[in-house]
Design a protein that fits this description.
three-stranded antiparallel beta sheet; Butyryl-CoA Dehydrogenase, subunit A, domain 3; 161 residues; alpha+beta
Length: 161
């Protein structure tokens, strides 16, 4: 695998995807309960939240798969109605916004149990937000790279008169 085929934006996307996937296993929300001098800790990971954890993972995995296929394969992918660079930008931003909203909106669910109290945000959620933002930055940078590449049939550089 020749990593020199990857652009900076591709490396940001792939690194962010890998980090986000790892941080899905870390605690995102939790609570410590003391009963008779014994403290019990309960926490939930990103896998416990479909909309705020798994859906962004699916979105950024789509970005990751396109980067890997286009960089390391000769497979001809179909062209979407908008350029792939804009697809990456939109997908990255949507995934990051969803994870940031997961951070901002407090959770009171431990698994399928409603605790009735807001759970503390744990370090895994903060790391996942950073990883999702890195993916979004990679998508925006990829969009900027896509805009700077010349397209066929465009302006030839000659004066109009």
């Amino acid at each position: 695998m020749d990593l020199s085929k990857l652009t900076t934006s591709d490396k940001l996307i792939l690194g962010g995807v890998l980090a986000y996937l790892i941080f899905m296993f870390f605690p995102w929300y939790g609570i410590d309960v003391s009963v008779f001098g014994t403290t019990q800790s309960f926490s939930s990971s990103g896998w416990d939240y479909f909309l705020g954890g798994i859906l962004p993972l699916i979105l950024i995995l789509v970005m990751c798969s396109h980067v890997l296929v286009s960089a390391f394969s000769d497979t001809e992918l179909p062209e979407p109605p908008v350029p792939w660079a804009q697809v990456h930008m939109g997908t990255g931003i949507v995934a990051a916004v969803i994870v940031v909203l997961r951070l901002l909106i407090a959770s009171d669910d431990y698994g399928s149990i409603d605790t009735g109290v807001n759970l503390d945000r744990k370090f895994g959620l903060f790391l996942a937000v950073i990883a999702a933002i890195v993916v979004a930055v990679g998508g925006v940078k990829k969009s900027q790279e896509g805009e700077s590449t010349p397209t066929s049939g465009g302006d030839t550089g000659s004066a109009p008169f």
